[in-house]
User: Fold this.
Amino acid sequence: SCVKVKASGINRMSVGFIGAGQLAHALVKGFTAAGVIAAHRITASSPDTNLPTVAELRKMGVNFTISNKEATHKSDVLFLAVKPHIIPFVLDEIGPDIEDRHLIVSCAAGVTISSIEKKLLQYRADPKVMRCMTNTPVVVREGATVYATGTHAEVEDGKLLEQLMASVGFCTEVEEDLIDAVTGLSGSGPAYAFTALDALADGGVKMGLPRRLAVRLGAQALLGAAKMLLDSEEHPGELKDQVCSPGGASIHALHLLESGGFRSLLINAVEASCIRTRELQFLADQEKISPAAIKKTTLDKVLQQPGISATSVATKNRVNLFNNRSGVKKV
Amino acid sequence: MSVGFIGAGQLVHALVKGFSAAGVIATHRITASSPETGLSTATRLRKMGVNLTTSNKETVKSSDVLFLAVKPHIIPFVLDEIGPDIEERHLIVSCAAGVTISSIEKKLLQHQSAPKVMRCMTNTPVMVREGATVYATGMHADLEDGKLLEQLMSSVGYCTEVEEDLIDAVTGLSGSGPAYAFTAVDALADGGVKMGLPRRLAVRLGAQALLGAARMLLDSEEHPGQLKDNVASPGGATIHALHVMESGGFRSLLINAVEASCIRTRELQHLADQEKISAAAIKKTTLKKVLQQPGVSGTGVTVRTGISLNSPSSKHK
Assistant:
């Protein structure tokens, strides 16, 4: 029988992060600002101690370690916050250390719940796995998060994750097949917004505003509009109509946006991000990683971890990572 | 302190909603006037506890800070009507796009030697207390008047003082900005729906993503480009999306928009300065009802082409 961590016990719960990069940092910053969990109950692990985010995490009072196994031992909810192609190595390493209490939450874009369950089933009968897609504004507690629930995760596990993620922004459950579309929209969305803000500020500067003021006003205008929309039952088009008085400045501006196909560019962007996410997921499912991709990671350091043997990884062309025969030697 | 609004439309509704949510002034200390009692916003204002009247003069008498929140071409009529009722305590704050402080002072100097006038440009998100407001100070308004206005407007969002000549650029950017944002969220939601999301979720996620990003930028010392870089991991989904946006000249469209709104604002200001209003524009207003106001005489206005409204010979009693 499973020992469940009740949602009401969230403040007695420990959270671990495999990975200590941008995402782990953003989530920890948000969680601690929200007061939903104390920093000393959080452990983060990474073989790379030089990351600037590692220093920040340490400053926040998080327990930092180079051992993924230690992060696993010290946590109840374990976030996998590493790059997608590192996930298989991590799962092989920590698989033996997963216990009944563990809730594994993967944040890796394109990595399916079933691929993670498949790996962990080598070590236990009913691994509790969830998958989430969030975004960087969790750092200011205005994130957008969706999550999907694996075969062995229960309703309470979903509620627990939702409670955590709702402390740092909007959070809702979805079917897993929607996650790549969410990636295209709110995963990548902040990048579209930063680009827009840079351009709006350029417009303001062209018309005579000092840069700082232009950036400030542009960001405030977007923030205010988004908040109006979230607080309102009205259609975005209705709200747009209300700003556009007859013959006024706004409707003149809107005409130019429409003439340039502004809307279409944004639809294209969401589509492109979603399609690329599916591509990455497909490559991962093929269970092949190119040597170049491997080189881009901190694979050398991953290989230094206890429990990982070099025989499980070949840097010849087209490495097959999920093949049991090249399974990692257990310590 | 009491606050009055000449006008009871969208802007007044948004400001009152924001002020009362902020608790910066009680609604019973707010008076709003409009000749048109059928406006949906007027009904909502009443429900909020605001004193509604059809008499602009009554609003003036009941207030210390008086916002002029009517369409730009109505301003001259209003000033002629309330001019005699302005007293030393009054701080006049014009929210009318394109109407210069000097044009307002010129009108009021007929009645008073040192009218305290300020001009502000705000935007509709004041309604949810996330507005963007700038203001400029007239000749006879002093430092305290500026601080007072800033205190009021800061309760509903960002507020800062600027030189008056920047106000039309601000109009193009944050005045019209919400319209660009609503259009963007509509399109983002279309993108999400195309890729399989239900509409409500797509709108929610799109708006939340924009809000979160804007909040990050406001809270950060970093350049928007740096924040963009932080989101775009190598070979990932985001950089693929950014490429298609750039290919379509996304940034340029937004610069165009800010420029167009600013230029149109300057055009409207120029037309107002010419002190001529087309007959069609007048017809579009509730002029008939304005003329029904006590103190406004029909001899001051003719519906021939190219009317000069500020001519001393057409001065109202």
Q: What stands out?
A: The longest helix of chain A spans residues 262-285. The CA atoms of residues 163 and 256 of chain A lie 43 Å apart.
